[in-house]
Each structure stands twice: as structure tokens, then as C-alpha cells.
Amino acid sequence: MSKIYVKAPAKINLLLDVIRKREDGFHEVEMIMTMVDLADRLEMEELPRDQIVLSSQVGFIPLDEKNLAFQAAKLIKERYGVKRGVYIHLDKQIPVAAGLAGGSSDAAATLRGLNRLWDLGLSRDELEVLGAELGSDVPFCIRGGTALARGRGEKLESISPPPQCWVILAKPPINVSTADVYGKFRVNDLKEHPSIPAMLDALSRQSFPDMCDSLGNVLEHVTLNRYPEVRQIKDCMIKAGADGVLMSGSGPTVFGLVSKEIKVARVYNALRGFCKEVYVVRMLT
Ligand code: ATP
């Protein structure tokens, strides 16, 4: 019986801007997203019966229809009339509800994996369209690399990858709901928007300092004002010498970018004093 392994990397937003609130209640965004080398690992195996079964080593995520990997398996199975079953084991390494798109990346990896396991022959574009039905970050997680995302986040354009550097991720022990953050966000209160052209220019020139200078996330003030521990992490990274620091997505994870290895230990040690979940990874370029 065939078995495959698929990786589901975490994403960070180098830039997140909100353009307007749409009539349908969603926000129109412009984001620059990229993958980091911190990934969930999915093991997928054919089942002799027509059923989707999910397991994970972590006990606090749903393993039924509420799980995005389960939803992805159900969607592709029903859409293409597949009468076969699959067992999926989710080895979770990406912190949950962290602003790192862990669930969306699992959904994307499930679609990619089942396309292979069930020989469906779907193109990347077809998988992206399917992924958009599951969540606005799923198409990007299917495509991977670095992309400019528009609309609700599903309209993608691949762009130059960031220059190689270290990424230190720190997640405080709080859960932040994306819906809550957007609910408290008022686009008309924004005094300035981060510059997409400046970030695109920095990436195309592979300029690490300019990339750090162009980081921006308009949701940051909402989460920082509500959760002092997120602000404390941000301040600590800056003080310890990280070259660029930003909250990812709606938070609460904060990432610090560092170009020189010698600085990594300093930032890591400063954070470890009061934050248990700290990861040191590389950009996936
Ligand atoms: P987003 O920014 O899209 O809200 P996130 O990275 O902040 O994503 P996730 O790790 O995707 O957050 O988890 C958000 C919620 O989704 C969790 O509370 C969890 O119960 C649920 N969830 C559903 N499927 C998964 C999955 N495969 N992995 C982790 N959480 C999942």
C-alpha cells in the first residue's frame, strides 16, 4: 500500500497591508509572504476502506471536519469522485494559532499529497483554485516561494525570494484569533501604509538592510495594544540587536531577521528568559 510524506512549511508576512473593507465584510489586503524552514510533516497512506482518518502527536487540535487537512482531503475527494480512503498523520511542528498559517499549510500539503497519491494529475493552478475554497492563505501555501498576494490573499504573483538570513520566531503563550484582530482593525484610522514597491525593490536587489527597513504590518498595533507580551517580545528582539522585527499575520508570533550568525545566539538567549516557544530557522529561498 503506498505511503508518501509531504512537508508543510510555515509562512511569515514580510509585509501586510489592508486596502479597504469590502462590502462582503472581508478586507482587501496586499501582502508579501515567504516560507521559512519550520514545517509540519504529513504522512499519507492509502486505506483499504473509503474513509478519511486523521491523527496527530498534539492533543489540542481538532482531528475531525474542523481540521483544515481533513477539509482539504474531503474537498478533493468529493470534487474528483475518488472512492478511496486515506490515513493522514500530522506531525505538528508549527505552533498553532500563531500567525504562521500552520493549518493552511497542512491543507495545501494535503491537496498536493493527495493529487500524487491518487494520481489526479491536477496542475498547480487547479490546486490553488481548489485551495482558495478552504482559506485565503491556502493558495499561497500551495505555490510556496515568495509571493505578492492581493484580494483576500488568494490572487498571487510570484516574486524574488528574500536574501538568505536567520529568522528567530517567538510565540507568547496566548491565542490570537485572526477574526478578532480584523474585527478591531479600522482601516480609516491608518495614518500610513507600508510600501510594497520598496519591499519589491529590496527583494529584487537582494538587499538585506533595505528588506529590514521595508517590513510592515498594519495589524501589528491592534495585537500589540491588546497583548503587552507581544510588544515585550518585539522590544526584546530589537534591544538584543535583531536587524528587522515584525509580527507575522495577525500574531501573536513575532519574527526577528538577523544576517550574521554571531547575533543569533544573543537574540535567542534574550528571548528564552521569558518566552518558552522560540525557534531559530532559515528563510526558505
Ligand atoms: P490564521 O492566521 O490563518 O488564523 P494561524 O497560523 O494563526 O492561521 P493555525 O495554526 O492555522 O493558525 O490554527 C488556527 C486554528 O485552526 C486553531 O485554533 C486550530 O484549532 C484550528 N486548526 C484547524 N486545522 C488545523 C491544523 N491542521 N493545524 C493547526 N490548527 C488547525
UniProtKB/TrEMBL annotation:
<keyword id="KW-0808">Transferase</keyword>
<keyword id="KW-0067">ATP-binding</keyword>
<feature type="active site">
    <location>
        <position position="137"/>
    </location>
</feature>
<keyword id="KW-0414">Isoprene biosynthesis</keyword>
<dbReference type="GO" id="GO:0016114">
    <property type="term" value="P:terpenoid biosynthetic process"/>
</dbReference>
<dbReference type="Pfam" id="PF08544">
    <property type="entry name" value="GHMP_kinases_C"/>
</dbReference>
<feature type="binding site">
    <location>
        <begin position="95"/>
        <end position="105"/>
    </location>
    <ligand>
        <name>ATP</name>
    </ligand>
</feature>
<feature type="domain" description="GHMP kinase N-terminal">
    <location>
        <begin position="67"/>
        <end position="145"/>
    </location>
</feature>
<keyword id="KW-0418">Kinase</keyword>
<feature type="active site">
    <location>
        <position position="11"/>
    </location>
</feature>
<dbReference type="GO" id="GO:0050515">
    <property type="term" value="F:4-(cytidine 5'-diphospho)-2-C-methyl-D-erythritol kinase activity"/>
</dbReference>
<dbReference type="InterPro" id="IPR013750">
    <property type="entry name" value="GHMP_kinase_C_dom"/>
</dbReference>
<keyword id="KW-0547">Nucleotide-binding</keyword>
<comment type="pathway">
    <text>Isoprenoid biosynthesis; isopentenyl diphosphate biosynthesis via DXP pathway; isopentenyl diphosphate from 1-deoxy-D-xylulose 5-phosphate: step 3/6.</text>
</comment>
<dbReference type="InterPro" id="IPR014721">
    <property type="entry name" value="Ribsml_uS5_D2-typ_fold_subgr"/>
</dbReference>
<protein>
    <recommendedName>
        <fullName>4-diphosphocytidyl-2-C-methyl-D-erythritol kinase</fullName>
        <ecNumber>2.7.1.148</ecNumber>
    </recommendedName>
</protein>
<feature type="domain" description="GHMP kinase C-terminal">
    <location>
        <begin position="199"/>
        <end position="276"/>
    </location>
</feature>
<dbReference type="InterPro" id="IPR004424">
    <property type="entry name" value="IspE"/>
</dbReference>
<dbReference type="GO" id="GO:0005524">
    <property type="term" value="F:ATP binding"/>
</dbReference>
<dbReference type="GO" id="GO:0019288">
    <property type="term" value="P:isopentenyl diphosphate biosynthetic process, methylerythritol 4-phosphate pathway"/>
</dbReference>
<dbReference type="InterPro" id="IPR020568">
    <property type="entry name" value="Ribosomal_Su5_D2-typ_SF"/>
</dbReference>
<dbReference type="InterPro" id="IPR006204">
    <property type="entry name" value="GHMP_kinase_N_dom"/>
</dbReference>
<comment type="function">
    <text>Catalyzes the phosphorylation of the position 2 hydroxy group of 4-diphosphocytidyl-2C-methyl-D-erythritol.</text>
</comment>
<dbReference type="InterPro" id="IPR036554">
    <property type="entry name" value="GHMP_kinase_C_sf"/>
</dbReference>
<dbReference type="Pfam" id="PF00288">
    <property type="entry name" value="GHMP_kinases_N"/>
</dbReference>
<comment type="similarity">
    <text>Belongs to the GHMP kinase family. IspE subfamily.</text>
</comment>
